[in-house]
Specification:
- This protein has 244 residues and is α/β, with parallel strands linked by helices.
- It has one domain: Rossmann fold (3-Layer(aba) Sandwich).
- 45% of the residues lie in helices and 17% in strands.
- The protein has eight helices and seven strands.
- Strand 2, helix 2 and strand 3 form a beta-alpha-beta unit.
- Helix 1 runs parallel beside helix 2, helix 1 packs across helix 6 and helix 4 packs parallel to helix 5.
- The longest helix has 29 residues.
- The N and C termini lie far apart (41 Å).
- The model has no long low-confidence stretch (mean pLDDT 96).
- Bound molecules: NADP nicotinamide-adenine-dinucleotide phosphate.
- The site of NADP nicotinamide-adenine-dinucleotide phosphate has 32 residues, from helix 1, strand 2, helix 4 and strand 5.
């Protein structure tokens, strides 16, 4: 397949790019830093002999950033699917951020993703097939006093994915949404975590093995399904006192 991976220079996105190239998919890798992307594409080309294009674009909901992606994507031909393992969070996301920071969080976790999907959806609908894989966070299961804008954006993304799944239900367009727990990446580096962090490589293996399954929403690692269920039904009188 010809696939786009947005957020491919680090963490889960980098692991996914590696695993997808191993499966002989041709790739367009997108992230903000060109030097990172060049090094990754050279390595994937050498090890897996697949076509790897790169676009150094910080995806956001504006025509300029979408057109930069399209210009690079044309080298691959028809795009069969897009995976969106990008994300951006900040430790000071406590409800007091200024507009630039809010825009970056909302664009990187929701609005930029919606904009790129909206461009490719008509072609996928016309062909009646495609693949769209989104990544949310357990941080959005229940609002709390940290990761405030991040969680709001991820919850918006989840709603968008759910709507697309509904819209595409009579087609072969597969819409997957992973609700992710902690991963061992830059986002958790040095943080004291209440639950173990999964390795991005293991997550990428799991995701690539399941690209053909039509499950809608899946928790990874699996045990987060039960933690989130517990969190959702924790009475407010208790929940408001939790510090995490
Ligand atoms: N790590 C965790 O514990 C955890 C937990 C729950 C959910 N998640 C979610 O899981 C996914 C993967 O997380 P991760 O930890 O692997 O992230 P990461 O290590 O921080 O890597 C994020 C990637 O996204 C790119 N990126 C960020 N904003 C972008 C934008 N606007 N346009 C293009 N590329 C952009 C980054 O590159 P540049 O900075 O160069 O642009 C980088 O390649 C994300 O959706 C994240 O929110 C992570």
């Amino acid at each position: 397949m010809n696939l786009i991976v947005v957020g491919a220079s680090a963490g889960l996105g980098r692991a996914l790019a590696d695993r997808l190239a191993q499966e002989k998919h041709n790739l367009l890798l997108i992230a903000g830093d060109e030097a990172d992307l060049k090094a990754i594409s050279a390595d994937l080309n050498l090890r897996h002999s697949v076509q790897v294009e790169i676009a150094a674009v910080r995806l956001q909901c504006d025509q300029n950033s979408i057109e930069k992606v399209l210009a690079k994507a044309s080298a691959l031909g028809n795009i069969d699917g897009i995976l969106f393992p990008l994300g951006y969070s900040r430790t000071d996301d406590d409800g007091t951020l200024g507009c630039d920071d809010i825009n970056r969080i909302v664009n990187s976790n929701m609005a930029g993703i919606i904009a790129l999907c909206s461009h490719y959806l008509p072609a996928m609908l016309q062909r009646g097939e495609g693949l769209l894989v989104f990544f949310g966070s357990v941080a959005s299961e229940r609002g709390r006093s940290s990761n405030i804008v991040y969680a709001a954006a991820k919850r918006g993304l989840q709603s968008f994915a759910e709507s697309l799944r509904h819209k595409c239900s009579a087609t072969n367009i597969n819409v997957q949404y992973y609700q992710l727990g902690y991963l061992n990446t830059a986002q958790t580096f040095g943080k004291k975590l209440p639950f173990p962090a999964a390795e991005p490589k293991d997550a990428a293996d799991y995701i690539v093995r399941n690209l053909n399954k039509r499950f809608g929403l899946e928790y990874y690692p699996w045990f987060w399904r039960f933690i989130c269920l517990g969190l959702r039904y924790t009475p407010w009188m208790v929940f408001k006192k939790l510090k995490f």
